[in-house]
Write a structure and sequence with these properties.
The protein is 45% helix and 11% strand. Helix 7 runs parallel beside helix 9. The radius of gyration is 20 Å and the shape is globular. By secondary structure, it is α+β, with helices and mostly antiparallel strands. 48% of the residues are buried.
Length: 383
């Protein structure tokens, strides 16, 4: 996946390959292309990829289809060298399905709220402690000036669906209930989508209804938005003057929950999975063990990968001196929820239905109730 950790993964893969005499090619592709290529590889049984980064939400789909190697026996066999207790509980959801572990934690993300310290100070606004506070701050700044109050994904598809799901989660909403049934059009979700629409209308920069992750990040790093909720993988880049005009003026807190809700933070990111059709699963496993080890994970963060799976990494004093936001990441990881987006086999189709619904609302093609009723009907048919 062409997220910020990709260049580090390429570099480290070459290092390991050279040391072990293994030919190792790493292809870096975008989200949609990655999903298409690995699914095509599975369907064709071609085994073109031995290893691939697996989005947390593909877990149920790939597990039920038997697309990847169950790593449980290998983990049990090599437990003494894996330092398993050092890995955050939430990180295991990057591949955990029933009693199987079909991917190994690699790049853990938590949802953070980033804000412009200089803009909030200038406007006399406090750092948001709740979701309601965030709405108040965003709307107070508005979108009439050069700096909008807020930015998020609006592009139809996974971008809009995943961003709105985060706000639903922070509102206390769910996509599936405790019995695993869709509750997309719940009252909480309808109100959450109303808020999402209002923030786009009154606090987002022009064109935001077409933004995906990259455009959302650019709007923030180029000074066009005062607040953004985003995955922790992006945080280090905000201090890089080569890509950010706001270095030194960014504050960070865990993405705020609605008032009265216990703190839980959406967890996501990528595991490393071995293709069930690979003819080199043992070599693939050896690389997984090496790249996720405590020693290499410290170097991983030092290199700017921006992701965390281990407590020892997120709490490392040397790394914290270099990346002062790490305690915020550690707090969110300790309270991470890997089921903020459901990891069921039907997820991709649910996400598509939700993405259509959100886009319809943002472009005034439907009310939140109408759009989520339609997504609910689509989701119910999947079960």
């Amino acid at each position: 996946m062409n997220d910020p950790f990709a260049s580090t993964l390429q570099k480290f893969a070459k290092e390991w390959a050279d040391e072990n005499g293994v030919d190792f090619q790493v292809d870096v592709v975008g989200y949609g292309d990655l999903a298409t290529r690995v699914r095509s590889d599975f369907v064709g049984g071609t085994g073109n990829f031995d290893l691939f980064t697996m989005d947390i939400v593909w877990t149920g789909e790939f597990a039920e289809a038997g697309n990847t190697v169950d790593l449980s026996d290998r983990i049990a066999r090599d437990a003494d060298e894996l330092d398993l207790d050092d890995i955050y509980d939430a990180a295991w959801t990057q591949g955990e399905w029933g009693d199987k572990q079909i991917a190994y934690p690699l790049a853990g993300y938590v949802n953070l709220l980033n804000y412009r310290t200089d803009v909030l100070e200038q406007e006399g606004l406090q750092v948001p402690a709740t979701l309601e506070d965030l709405s108040d701050v965003a709307l107070a700044i508005g979108n009439d000036g050069p700096v909008a109050g807020w930015v998020a994904n609006g592009q139809q598809g996974p971008a809009a669906a995943q961003d709105w799901m985060a706000y639903s989660f922070q509102s206390g909403g769910q996509i599936l209930d405790g019995d695993g049934k869709p509750v997309i059009n719940s009252d909480v979700n309808v109100k959450s989508l109303e808020l999402y629409r209002d923030l786009f209308d009154q606090a987002a920069p022009p064109g935001a209804t077409e933004f995906d992750w990259g455009q959302r990040e650019t709007a923030f790093t180029q000074g066009r938005a005062a607040t953004v909720e985003t995955w922790s993988v992006s945080r280090a880049s905000y201090e890089d003057p080569e890509v950010s005009t706001i270095a030194g003026n960014v504050g960070t807190v865990p993405a705020p929950m609605a008032a009265g809700l216990d703190p839980k933070y959406a967890f996501g990111g990528w595991g490393l999975a071995i293709n069930a059709d690979s003819d080199t699963p043992d070599a693939a496993w050896e690389f997984i063990k090496w790249v996720t080890s405590p020693e290499v994970q410290k170097r991983w963060v030092e290199d700017g990968a921006g992701t965390y799976i281990r407590k020892s990494t997120a709490e490392d004093p040397e790394l914290t001196a270099e990346f002062p936001f790490q305690p915020v990441v550690a707090e969110a990881l300790a309270n991470g929820d890997g089921d903020a987006r459901p990891r069921v086999p039907q997820y991709s189709e649910i996400e598509n239905a939700v993405g259509i619904a959100v886009s319809k609302v943002l472009t005034k093609g439907a009310t939140p109730q109408e759009a989520l009723d339609e997504a609910q009907a689509t989701a119910e048919a999947l079960f």
